[in-house]
Design brief:
The structure holds two protein chains of two kinds. Chain A is built from 19 helices and 30 strands. By secondary structure, chain A is of the alpha+beta class. Chain B has two domains: about 80 residues, Ubiquitin-like (UB roll); about 70 residues, [2Fe-2S]-binding domain (DNA polymerase, domain 1). Helices cover about 35% and strands about 15% of the residues of chain B. Chain B has a five-stranded mixed beta sheet, covered by helices on one side. Classes of the chains: A alpha+beta, B alpha+beta. Chains A and B meet through helix 1 and helix 17 of A and helix 2, helix 3, helix 4 and helix 5 of B.
Chain lengths: ~800, ~160
């Protein structure tokens, strides 16, 4: 028998992180920290216009500047026969046609379509020389009219971005039963309607993106150091689509990465160009983004315009939901852009509720703005915002307690597995439990007294709820393939057992803040009965780790961790065979527990380290019967998503004189299934909440509608949450273990950003007694709303 | 590389030459190889580059290297002694005050400044004092706890 998860002492323990020491002592190794012999530097020439054509790039002056090695353009890439950047998820419109997928060259050719688009690259001896010379490159732009507002992109007079894309439309996708939804609305006692905007966001991982391309002429092989959440996917795209080198001649290393939040999933122009240019100039080529480049060119998130309607009966039961969304793709399709407002959005619109009929239609459009793709939550925050705002407005219109209306419509605990009308099967959950716990912690019952007390001080106090569900660990590969994915969605793990009994785990996931080096080591140490420091976790290097899919969509534990468990099971199985031989017993009689292989009912046993040594020094193995070694590999392809869910409660106080909103109390009760490290999980929730509160109150990427200039192009203009913008958070967990993976884990990375924005806006609407206010609820907007109310 | 520059970095004397435009952070990272000090923005907003210069916590991305002429600079690499983390570093680990680690060196340096200027900083003080530092991972919740605990540990270290 094998040890079951939870049998040891490390599952559920708030182990302090093993990676912290290097980060705390300045020994982290991020891409920009790496210096390769002979490296030179790239600076990009970027379009100052949102939409323009050009015929000529004049590099003469740049070539004469000090230190310049070369200036390269899109024409040079074409001459080398390279492909462009691709979107790896093909969506089909409701009429069956395939989405429009316009060409996306790494360096613009003839046309630029957003401010900041890379047009050329200057490579020089030093960073400063490259930047100086980039300013000397002249491009003969002829400006074109601009559209940045997704709601206007399909208008008759709107400028067309791509000649092969009529009406600037990428696709017109639908999900759900339109006829049944129509009937539900016809039979409704009450219909609640709401129009809302999900504000565009800039991810702003604190480490700017960076890359170093390197070419080895001896083997004609390439190495790319880059800030990636999924180096194997970057390698696949660079090989199969851009065509720089075949995969076996290309190594992608994502060393320490300073946050990602989705923005480092995608393959961008800059790392592509640095890699290609390294062979052209015969030296390593390095580029590190300035923050302003990050604002201009890193994929943004959200940017939806939505009209939604909820049909209810006389008891407040939900009968139907109709959602019509326009999603901004930006000027080009980023790597996974098309999947975000479809399979990661429409499918989540049932929420935690029994709503018999749901229909959603999404128009994805191109505009003169940076590409939009996954950002923490990726589609699910947009879904929870629509639904939880709509439910709150319905409660207001029907004069029902918002908690009570939600309670009446929850999927009951005995209804699982539950098939939603929008293509998902929820395996398990208990939404009532997290609502009850959250209301208790938030002292929902005592709110009226706090509101009255605030009112006496001239302040408006409000409370808002959000009951979210989300989907993590997107899977299985077969289904994803049917839905248009171009990649698999499994994860891999390789566990190497060293002769002395220490273990090296190679995971295809990537840690850029999530603490995998600790959490995954806990799983290994727990199951093998080892000390935590006997386990090393290796990730982020295609030269060391077998193919894997990386980290996004809160998948690393549920999918990557499950692969680890499968590999450990194989090791324990083999260990039992070795032990049976060494201890002269039958395999069936060998038990493995507490780190020892034991003949059942006897005191004959060998420790894991002894078996590891015997496996690697197999002097006594019967030839042909047992292979030497104790390394094992596993690939885990989940049978379903996992479905974290929970309730967030936000309490705000508003100063009607200034419009300033203070979040006085924020409670999050989440069900992540089995938790391996509660300390790390709480940290993930804190971070998600900060980004959710940032979206609700502070953050907004704004393009000028006339010029297409990015108005919020620096941290002086784009408001990231600071410590005194946020409260301390009250967290708690409920637990229904995932039913279909060996850990029972669901995923916790994005829930904070998914559940919190509607809770904040619901609290503000409650405080001001208004129907709606768009995010971000800045003091100006709130002040105006308070004056109107 | 025209201007001669002498200063002390993490207790060691450094003599080098810099350009007039060279920033202190460029000197630390590019010339001295002290890559623990990070650059997270270009507008002096994020504080990832914070170091100690003659007892004050400053942004090394907005300080010219020549301004450190004759000064004593301490970076994140200079805090641990004999392999043992400084009490503030240890508090960040104990309270999970870091995730991706990129803002962490600047946060720890800022925390030292807070602890020196406030005997027992409360939550509101710490949050207000962090207005020059950005973290995108932690929501600051555990950073605030870590700084309070680190300040306490520093008091107890030096009665």
């Amino acid at each position: 028998m094998t040890g079951s998860p939870g049998a040891g002492s490390l599952i559920g323990a708030s182990v302090r992180r093993t990676e912290d020491r290097r980060f705390l002592s300045g020994n982290g190794r991020y891409t920009d920290d790496i210096t390769l012999p002979g490296q030179c530097f790239a600076a990009f020439v970027r379009s100052p216009h949102a939409h323009a054509t050009f015929r000529k790039i004049s590099a003469q002056a740049a070539y004469q500047a000090p230190g310049v090695l070369c200036v390269l353009t899109g024409a040079d890439m074409n001459a080398d026969g390279l492909g462009g950047l691709v979107c790896s998820w093909i969506i089909h419109s409701a009429d069956g046609s395939e989405m429009n997928h316009p060409a996306h060259p790494a360096l613009a050719v003839e046309t630029v379509r957003y401010v900041g688009e890379p047009v050329a690259v200057v490579i020089a001896e030093t960073r400063q020389q490259a930047k100086n010379a980039a300013e000397l490159v002249e491009v003969d732009y002829a400006e074109l009219p601009v559209v940045t507002d997704p709601a206007r992109a399909r208008d008759a007079g709107a400028p067309r971005l791509h000649h092969d894309t009529p009406d600037n439309t990428c696709y017109r996708w639908e999900l759900g039963d339109a006829t049944a939804t129509e009937a539900a609305f016809a039979a409704a006692h009450h219909v609640t309607r709401l129009e809302l905007v999900n504000n565009r966001l800039a991810p702003n991982a604190l480490e700017p993106r960076a890359a170093i391309g390197q070419h080895d002429p001896g083997t004609d092989s390439f190495t790319l150091y880059t800030t990636s959440q999924n180096p194997h996917v970057a390698r696949l795209l660079l090989s199969a689509f851009v065509g720089i080198a075949p995969e076996h001649k290309l190594r992608v290393i994502a060393p320490d990465v300073g946050g990602g939040f989705g923005s480092k999933i995608f393959l961008y122009s800059e790392e592509t160009v640095c890699l290609w240019a390294a062979k052209r100039v015969g030296r390593p080529v390095k580029w590190t983004a300035e923050r302003s480049e990050s604002f201009l060119n890193d994929a943004h998130g959200r940017d939806h315009v939505t009209a939604a309607e909820l049909a209810l009966d006389e008891n407040g039961a939900f009968l139907g939901l109709r959602v019509r969304t326009t999603a901004n793709m930006g000027a080009y399709l980023s790597t996974f852009a098309s999947a975000i407002p479809t399979w990661l959005y429409g499918t989540l619109l049932a929420g935690p509720y029994v709503t018999p009929a749901v229909h959603v239609a999404v128009d994805a459009v191109f505009t003169n703005s940076a590409p939009v793709d996954a950002y923490r939550g990726a589609g699910r925050p947009e879904a929870s915002y629509v639904l939880e705002r709509l439910v709150d407005k319905a409660a207001r219109e029907l004069a029902l307690d918002p908690a009570e209306l939600r309670r009446r419509n929850f999927i009951p605990v005995d209804a699982f597995p539950y098939d939603t009308p929008v293509a998902l099967t929820y395996d398990t959950g208990d939404y009532q439990a997290s609502l009850d716990k959250a209301l208790e912690i938030a002292d929902y019952a005592g709110f009226a007294a706090r509101r009255a007390e605030a009112k006496a001080r001239g302040k408006r106090r409000g409370i808002g709820l959000s009951c979210y569900i989300e989907a993590c660990g997107i899977a299985p590969s077969q289904l994803a393939g049917e839905l248009g994915a171009s990649v698999g969605l499994f994860e891999s793990a390789e566990v190497r057992v060293n002769p002395t009994g220490t273990v090296s785990l190679f995971t295809g996931t990537h840690s850029h803040g999530q603490g995998h080096e600790t959490t995954l080591a806990q799983i290994v140490a727990d199951r093998l009965g080892l000390a935590l420091d006997a386990v090393d976790v290796v990730h982020g290097d295609t030269g060391r780790v077998q193919y894997g899919l990386g980290t996004y969509g809160s998948r690393s534990l549920a999918v990557g961790g499950s692969a680890v468990v499968r590999a450990l099971d194989k090791i324990i199985d083999k260990g039992r065979k070795i032990a049976a031989h060494m201890l002269e017993a039958a395999v069936e009689d060998i038990e493995f527990c507490d780190g020892a292989f034991r003949v059942a009912g006897t005191d004959k046993a060998m420790s894991f380290a002894e078996i590891a040594f015997a496996a690697n020094v197999p002097h006594h193995f019967p030839p042909g019967e047992i292979e030497p070694g104790l390394d094992e590999t596993a690939f885990y392809d989940p049978v379903n998503f996992t479905f974290p869910a929970g309730t967030h409660v936000c309490e705000v106080e508003i100063d009607p004189e200034t419009g300033v909103v203070r979040v006085e109390k924020f409670t999050a009760v989440d069900d992540f299934g089995t938790v391996i490290n509660p300390m790390i999980v709480a940290g993930q929730v804190h971070g998600g909440l900060a980004q959710g509160l940032g979206q609700a109150l502070l953050e907004h990427c704004v393009y000028d509608r006339e010029s297409g200039q990015l108005v919020t192009g620096s941290l002086m203009d784009y408001c990231l949450p600071r410590a005194d913008d946020l409260p301390a958070f009250d967290l708690a967990l409920t637990e229904t273990a995932c039913t279909h993976n060996p850990l029972g884990a669901k995923g916790c990375g994005e829930a904070g950003a998914i559940g919190s924005p509607p809770a904040v806006i619901n609290a503000i609407a409650n405080a001001l007694d208004i129907d709606h206010i768009d995010m971000p609820a800045t003091p100006e907007k709130v002040w105006r709303a308070a004056r109107r109310a | 590389m025209s201007i001669p520059l002498s200063l002390t970095v993490n207790g060691k004397t450094v003599s080098t030459k810099v350009e007039g435009r060279t920033l202190l952070v460029e000197l630390l990272r590019d010339q001295l190889g002290l890559t623990g000090t990070h650059v997270g923005c270009d507008t002096s907003q994020c504080g990832a580059c914070n170091v100690e210069l003659d007892g004050r916590i400053i942004k090394s991305c907005t300080t010219l290297a020549v301004q450190a002429q004759g000064a004593s600079v301490t970076t994140i690499e200079g805090l641990a002694h004999d392999g043992e983390l400084h009490p503030m570093q240890a508090a960040f680990r104990e309270h999970h005050g870091l995730q991706c680690g990129f803002c962490t060196p600047g946060m720890v340096m800022t925390a030292l400044g807070i602890a020196r200027r406030h005997a027992e900083p409360d939550e509101a003080t710490i949050r207000a004092e962090l207005d020059g530092n950005l973290c995108r991972c932690t929501g600051y919740h555990n950073i605030v706890k870590a700084i309070a605990a680190g300040a306490k540990a520093m008091r107890e270290d030096q009665p």
